[in-house]
Amino acid sequence: MKLRKYKKVISIMLVIGMVFSLTLTSFASEDSSMYDAFNFTNGYGYVGMVGVRVTIGAEADINVKMRVRTVTQDQIIDLIQEYKSYFTNEQYNKIISDESYRENGNGAKLLCCLLETKYGDGSDNCFAKVKDQEVRAENPEDQALLRAIKDLTEQEYILSGNLKVKGLSYTPTEACCFVKVARIRFKDGSTLNVINTNGTIAEPDGTRDSITGSDENTPLDLIPLHE
């Protein structure tokens, strides 16, 4: 009886090994040149006007309710865990110890951290402020991870919350809401967008010369548009 039980365990292990081999074969049969490079943009993105003009000394509470399309921070965390074996121990520990992994609202920052760690030149913040920069994925493992990132699904949400603004100029100034945005453009022309769900108030050109108020640490809610 013990011998039969041992044989059964071996058979299960062989089946698992065959499934794993088939998965690797499936990726190898694809055109790997689709995943040997991507373009990356990282910075603050304009979300929209908030409908308030303020002058010096004037203060206002602003209710934000904006429609956005994004991949969430939780989706990226799930991907990191699912493809943990694609990172070295040093890379993995660097990602999970970053504040963008541990603190809510940092989806764009976490994606940037992942890409810098896996595809960067080894320096910190090498993708901190880039616009459509080409990034190479040199080996099959890097390409397989890029394919997994491409398979993430953007969904529509309502970005909602409260921000504060105060005028610093005698000239009435329109307040705008900005969030940090990370965007990957793949070789087939498709894109993937990830935002921080922390909003900041600034002028239409992104400066804060005439207004002040909520900074990028102000949390906003990300509410699914279709539940």
From TrEMBL:
Signal peptide limits: 1-28
Positions of region (Disordered): 204-227
Domain of life, per lineage: Bacteria
Keywords recorded for this protein, A-Z: Signal
Protein name, UniProt field: Uncharacterized protein
Taxonomic lineage from the root: Bacteria, Bacillati, Bacillota, Clostridia, Lachnospirales
